[in-house]
Amino acid sequence: MSDPRPAAVPHVVFDRVSKTYPSGTRALADVSLTVAPGEVVSLIGPSGCGKSTLLRIAAGLEVADTGAVARPERDIGFVFQDPTLMPWGTVADNVALPLRFARTPERDIAPRVAAALARVGLTDAAAAYPRELSGGMRMRASIARALVTRPKILLLDEPFAALDEIGRFALDLELLRLAASEGLTVIFVTHSVYEAVFLSSRVVVMAAGPGRIVAETPIAFGIPRDEALRDRADFTARCAEVSALLRDAVAASAGEVDRDAATR
Fold first, then answer.
1. What are the pLDDT digits (tens) for 193-226?
2. pTM of the model
3. Which region, left, alpha or beta, applies to residue 194 given φ > 0 means left and ψ of -120 to 50 means alpha?
4. H/E element holding 34?
5. CA-to-CA distance for 189 and 44, rounded, in angstroms?
């Protein structure tokens, strides 16, 4: 018997997307990927495999040369690797920036900023300046700025890479909590296998030269997840499996570089 429930409408679909930069670098070649509502998908792969380019195309910050991208025109939040906070503005000023760009009525800005700061635990830091915050708090402010527009999709480009291990684990947990409570669809770029496995419902592995998807693997751990998951034998085993896929991707990338060199 067929399932009478309507299928979930994908939030982001890449259909044979390619991108070559003016320098001649083939950042992406024939990439197809579907991300459904509520998924947390991590992209991992060697440097130069096009993870960030794919994310920027999803955000509308870059345009694919060929192929098609289906996504909401709005309702997308982007968190960069660097928090990129204005040093002369308070935390509240920085979080309010997207609303002011969108010409949101002034009476609506303060309550929405307060709500976004509360979601990331920064209510008491609203009047602080970025220089007064720790690295983790600055990243929380950056996430609040992305959430203030009430997005359905959250795109994160290695946001926790510069943090120490304790701060990174804390924000991984915070991201999972936010994704669940806000019903977010998340695409997360990381170089960390452990982070990808901990966060994701699916891990997508990319290779370079040109950037392409070489493997996808579901992560079946339930939600919610907590710190205890990292100590489980099945978590360690899953990380080992994804690490093997990543090693294969690195080898595939090296092979493409060798072939390119041989044809010159």
1. 999 999 999 999 999 999 999 999 999 998 889 9
2. 0.91
3. alpha
4. strand 26-35
5. 6
